[in-house]
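Complex 321.
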Amino acid sequence: MDLGLLYLAKIPHLFLGHSDDGRSIAMLLGICGLISLVIFGVVAGTVVRYTRNYAAKAGDDSTFREAQDEGKIESKFAILFLVLVIALGSYGLTVTWNIDSVTAEKQQQPDLIIVGHQWWWEIRYPGSDAVTANIAHIPTGKRLLVAIESADVVHDWWVSGLGRKMDAVPGRTNYFWIQADQPGVFEGACNEFCGTQHAWMRMEVVAEPEEQFQAWLESQALVAQPAVGDNAKNGSLLFNEMSCATCHSIRGTTSEAGIGPDLTHVASRSKLLAGKITYSKENLKAWLSDPQAVKPGAHMPRFIFSEKELDDLTDYLDGLK
Ligand code: CUA
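Predicted structure with dinuclear copper ion bound:
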């Protein structure tokens, strides 16, 4: 994929890097990519040269013997490529090593805990009650340790530019660093095929100055705002009656299940369904009325609501800022 397409696909961070780790990965990618291009050129050029110069002619095997005599070039190539493999291998290992080093002591205090689910990301902040989905906020200029787990199958987190990729493996905790030097919104996608909606398992990292981040974290840690108005109040009752509460948690209410995303501040998110839809009341209502039409395969079943019930439930959730 060329750079123009990467920009169109909104993945401009791959070759740029927005942290020390991000830059060293981008540099590794760039150098290995360039050397690979040179190797491709040399190999392809050699193949073309030999096929043109030494093509067999009927009844004459002199060109074949001539080509054999040039066997020296093979040993030269073998040595050159051995040196390249060792050099690039050591370079790659050094970059990996510098990025990876997480001490056992440090592992006890991750800054973020990310859990991969089919098909969304749960994001927790140790020391805070805040729980969000798919959109992680981080303070700028800090190297943050992420502990990553999975609730079901293997997923893979990667927001290029901020750090390395890391698999989310069931039954195991992996660790990796992320950092953003400057404020910005950085997008990424699940990098390990994990089922029907793998393509819509995107994530976003919102990097903001420390103060702004702390304000966000405090607001997300609060319990849910109570329903205001008759419609929303009816919606909150429906939430429990229609068994939404058996999967979702809304802190400050009796809904405490942790299977689907925490909805305490669902209306404060700019996107829903791991990037599939932007947040709006209309999109939320469309999702509630027929989840399988919006995100086929998603683990939310279709409930049969009347138009009034849909409006009330949407009203209630839309009030959860
Ligand atoms: Cu999760 Cu692919």
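The pocket of dinuclear copper ion is lined by residues 116, 119, 155, 190, 192-194, 198, 201 (CB under 6 Å).
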